[in-house]
């Protein structure tokens, strides 16, 4: 067992097996807090449709995904939007070191874009989590399937292995959101 761990540490995380992409449905309304975020920071919501819609997942990209997920999860302290901002649901960057689920994911997306990954392949996503609450994750669209960065785990997982019900995510054209797997939408993503 120790030998396997040493090899893993020396070579980095192994590439995951290929998965499947999430099934997308018709256009749906984004979360209201997303709209407010985009009004405050329009450049963060603009998608260049000339960018790749899917990332070629190789060992270097996989290391980047796992590293960013782990680093942000360790760096940000969870707090509800009500306690942090005095409102039920607000999407923003956790620049003060505090945030809830979508704030973690926005920071991860910003860091991945800074490392050269196309924003178009990094989609904010709304799910119903393992305790039945609205939750936000970052879906990374790759040629090996869709993978999830989540503040509830340091492990980057294929979407189908999270145990979540997928509701909706940003579309790939930057102008709309799309439904996922026929999911019903929560009112907020106010989950830590």
Written overview of the protein:
- Pfam families: Peptidase_C93.
- Residues 1-26 are annotated as: Disordered.
- This is Transglutaminase.
- This protein is of the alpha+beta class and 192 residues long.
- It has one domain (18-180): C8orf32 fold (Roll).
- 31% of the residues lie in helices and 24% in strands.
- It has helices at 2-11, 32-40, 42-45, 59-75, 81-85, 101-114; strands at residues 24-28, 77-78, 98-99, 122-128, 134-142, 145-150, 153-158, 165-170, 177-180.
- Strand 6 and strand 7 (153-158) form a beta hairpin.
- Helix 4 (59-75) packs across helix 6.
Numbering strands along the chain, what is their spatial order in the largest sheet? Answer: 1-9-8-4-5-6-7
Helix content: 25-40%
Supply the helix-strand structural class.
alpha+beta
The radius of gyration computed from the alpha-carbon positions, rounded to a whole number of angstroms, is 16 Å
Total E-strand runs: 9
N-to-C order of helices and strands:
HEHHHEHEHEEEEEE
What ranges have pLDDT less than 50 throughout 5 or more consecutive residues? 1-11
**Mean pLDDT, rounded to whole units?**
87
Query: Which CATH class?
Result: Alpha Beta
Organism: Methylobacterium durans
Pfam families: Peptidase_C93
Biased composition (Polar residues): 1-10
Protein name: Transglutaminase
């Amino acid at each position: 067992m120790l030998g396997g761990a040493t090899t893993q540490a020396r070579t980095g995380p192994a590439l995951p097996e290929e998965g499947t992409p999430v099934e997308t449905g018709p256009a749906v309304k984004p979360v209201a807090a997303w709209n407010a975020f985009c009004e405050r920071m329009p450049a963060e919501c603009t998608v260049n449709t000339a960018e790749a819609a899917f990332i070629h997942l190789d060992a270097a990209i996989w290391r980047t995904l796992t590293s960013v997920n782990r680093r942000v999860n360790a760096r940000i302290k969870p707090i509800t939007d009500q306690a942090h901002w005095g409102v039920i649901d607000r999407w923003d960057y956790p620049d003060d070191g505090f945030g809830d689920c979508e704030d973690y994911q926005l920071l991860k997306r910003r860091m991945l874009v800074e490392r050269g990954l196309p924003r178009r392949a990094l989609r904010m996503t709304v799910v119903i989590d393992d305790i039945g609450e609205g939750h936000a994750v970052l879906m990374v669209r790759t040629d090996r399937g869709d993978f999830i960065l989540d503040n509830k785990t340091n492990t980057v997982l294929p979407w189908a292995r999270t145990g979540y019900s997928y509701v909706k995510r940003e579309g790939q054209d930057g102008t709309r959101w799309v439904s996922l797997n026929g999911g019903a939408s929560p009112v907020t993503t106010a989950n830590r």
